[in-house]
Design brief:
By secondary structure, the protein is an all-alpha fold. The chain contains 2 helices and no strands. The termini are far apart. The relative contact order is 0.03.
């Protein structure tokens, strides 16, 4: 069989058509270039012609918006001044936060200390009362034993 120029050969997979629809692009070409060539070829082949009733006219170019306050210039002085101002505000907020945390921590510490003192006092008082009750119970048991020996 002889191959002629008019005979169509199957397209190898993984290769995109060149933008003019001719030979496939080189397999070593970059993937974005291949995708762009394929997208261009597909748009040319499959884009429907716009109908006369649906022709879109380009939108009128609008002028840039007018600002009531001009945007500040970005110079080193302005950037440094804004940075210093932000640092001052941050320092004041950090000082207030630290003071608030310090006050809260002091209240919690005082509450914890008072609860530990109350626990200690309660423990001592309870242990004294338990010891007194044990002593009273022992004396009662001794009296009962003495009465038993007297009646026997």
């Amino acid at each position: 069989m002889s191959s002629s120029a008019t005979e169509e050969r199957p397209q190898p997979t993984g290769q995109a058509l060149s933008p003019d629809g001719g030979l496939p692009t080189h397999p070593q070409a970059s993937p974005p270039a291949q995708e762009e060539a394929l997208t261009h070829a597909l748009k040319d082949d499959y884009s429907p012609a716009p109908s006369p009733s649906k022709v879109v006219t380009p939108a009128r170019q609008l002028p840039p918006p007018e600002y009531s306050v001009p945007p500040p210039e970005l110079s080193n002085k302005n950037v440094v001044a804004a940075l210093e101002q932000s640092a001052d505000v941050l320092a004041k907020e950090l000082t207030a936060l630290t003071a608030s945390l310090r006050g809260g921590l002091q209240e919690i510490t005082e509450s914890s200390v008072s609860h530990m003192e109350l626990y200690h006092d309660t423990h001592e008082e309870l242990s004294h009362q338990v010891m007194d009750s044990i002593d009273a119970l022992r004396s009662l048991i001794e009296k009962c034993q003495n009465l038993n020996t007297q009646f026997d």
